[in-house]
Amino acid sequence: MASNASEAGAGPAKESTSYLSPLYISVPESSWPIVYHPSYNISFAGLEKLHPFDSGKWGKIVGFLIEAGLLQQHQLVQPLEAQEADLLKVHTADYLNSLKWSANVARVTEVGLVAMLPNFIVQRKVLKPFRFHVGGTVLAAKLALDRGWAINIGGGFHHCCGYRGGGFCAYADITMAVKFLQRGYAGPQSQIQRAMIVDLDAHQGNGHERDFLGDKTVFILDAYNVQIYPGDNAAKPAISCSVDLTAGVGDNAYLDEVSKALEESLNGSFQPQLVLYNAGTDIMDGDPLGLMRITPNGIIKRDELVFRACRTRSIPVVMVTSGGYQRSNARVIADSILNLRDKGLIEGPTAG
């Protein structure tokens, strides 16, 4: 385990590489930089209902955006499924092999009955959707560099690192998105050196933190409830700016703390070339796991705050949707994206 942790925490590869990831597909100018695939949604004989996460929320978000007239179905960007060759750029072979055992996937997804299913079914019904999310986050990060902003309607699996998963997170999409761009896997014209992760999910982002331990090319701002899962003290040294919150925090205190931390981080000497924003909505009042008391309007203001801070500084920003364990989350996320449009912080394609 120690050797794996060291490997996962190492900085970007120093050697030059000619590898180009097939996940970076060509995107027409007529598309919004909003990434989604119908395969994101997990549905299998009601098994998905055994976890509090709404595993169909991503499709609902898209439905609300289309209904509101923001875009049409054909203007969405459909990502490819991440394949083993890409996953191995960040994940250890041992970890990926462990997912070939249903019991291990059951532990990662926190759904015990998954352990009783044949693994080929688990691969197709559970892990394949996650791999599409990964492809979406990797592609969206490149789109943000090209367009100034991008949103992956899914992704944000911040409890998974290169050598282990957990908390409903089977693959480290955040780590992959950052490291792929740092290593030039999208081509030299899209290569970056410095990235900032702004993690505003209710839970500590211990996965990407373990991956970037000791890596000075990645700045991590993490605002989370210190009283809940995962309480990963070993990962905390990777946090560059920690906002320690407690259960019951409300809009005013939360937004004040986040705003202050974001301004201090972006006004510092780090100067990121990309901000990856993990926009979990499990901070919302009533969430059974986040235990915070942020209103839907507070979430909308939070997202606006992050996008405004990045876009006024001309820093490309990519948003992933991460956690949120209430049926109303999809509506709130869609409303937040519509608000970003209304405030001029995101804009449509140049071509119709």
Average pLDDT, to the nearest integer? 93
Q: Which CATH class is shown?
A: Alpha Beta
Q: Structural class of the helix and strand makeup?
A: alpha/beta
Q: Helicity, in percent? A: 25-40%
Question: What name does the CATH topology carry?
Answer: Arginase, Chain A
SS strand fraction = 5-15%
Low-confidence stretches: 1-16
Q: What is the H/E string? A: HEHHHHHEHEHEEHEHEH
Span between termini: 51 Å
Biggest β-sheet description: 7 strands, parallel
Number of domains: 1
Find the count of extended strands (DSSP E, 2+ residues): 7
Radius of gyration: 18 Å
Number of helices: 11
Architecture (CATH level 2) name = 3-Layer(aba) Sandwich
In the sheet with the most strands, the strands line up as: 1-2-7-6-3-4-5
CATH superfamily placement? Histone deacetylase domain
Shape: globular
Walk me through the structure.
This protein has a single domain (2-9, 30-342), classed as Histone deacetylase domain (Arginase, Chain A, 3-Layer(aba) Sandwich). It has helices at residues 2-9, 57-67, 84-87, 93-98, 102-109, 119-147, 173-182, 206-211, 251-266, 296-311, 329-342; strands at residues 34-35, 149-152, 195-199, 218-225, 241-245, 274-278, 317-320. It is α/β, with parallel strands linked by helices and 352 residues long. Helix 2 (57-67) packs across helix 11 (329-342), helix 6 (119-147) packs across helix 7 (173-182) and helix 9 (251-266) runs parallel beside helix 10. Helix content is 36%, strand content 9%. Strands 1-2-7-6-3-4-5 form a seven-stranded parallel β-sheet, with helices on both faces. Its main location: nucleus. Keywords: Chromatin regulator, Hydrolase, Nucleus, Repressor, Transcription, Transcription regulation. This is Histone deacetylase 11.
